[in-house]
Amino acid sequence: MSSKPLTLISATPSPFARMNRIALQLKGIPFELQNEIPWESKTQTPKYNPLEKLPILVFPEGDGRSPVYESAHIQTYIVEKYADKGPKLLPGDVDGNLMAKQIVVLSVGCMDAMVLNRWEARREKEQQSQKWMDRQDRKIDGALRAFNDYVEAAKKDGREFVVGIELSIADIAIICTVGFIDFGEVRPGWREQYPALATYFDLHDKQKEFAETRPVMFDLTEKVV
């Protein structure tokens, strides 16, 4: 594998890419961040991902590896391809690893629901589907309840982390998702509703790699919907 840095193509506020950025930083894998808005006409996204979505992990020219896309899969790629670099970010046993990856999937689904809701709200009022938005809201609320359940179960077992005894991709995923909920003010009052989750979030979000990757909004210059 090339010693040159990787490139992670991301949209600035993206909680999806934030997961990958944190994993790369924790493992000490050199990478450069390239920000793009995949919906705009000048985007280079289709060059690397046929689904035209971010994030995308791109390797140096001549490396021989194809780009890796979809945040959950990028996360799996990072922890498995670079398993020799600590921290592992996985518990290490089959059931624990599968549970950690399941929580990543749950988190990405919640992030997707927030993005879909936001795009629907950008439509003209008469074109919006309240049933569609209600469905996305149920996904967000369901994920928040599940996150809190995971945190409370860990607390009951005397654990700081939701899967295993060390920080894993599951914790990274939850913090990034809840951070996006907080950033977008998607659920005002969530802290009062889920105090265990709030305490857990504040504990981990202050860690250096999390603090350095908090979302920053971009300006859309082209109308999409």
From TrEMBL:
Q: Which residues form the GST C-terminal domain?
A: 93-225
Domain GST N-terminal intervals: 4-86
Family to which this protein belongs:
Belongs to the GST superfamily.
PANTHER family, per database record = GLUTATHIONE S-TRANSFERASE GSTA, GLUTATHIONE S-TRANSFERASE-RELATED
Q: Can you name this protein?
A: Glutathione S-transferase domain-containing protein
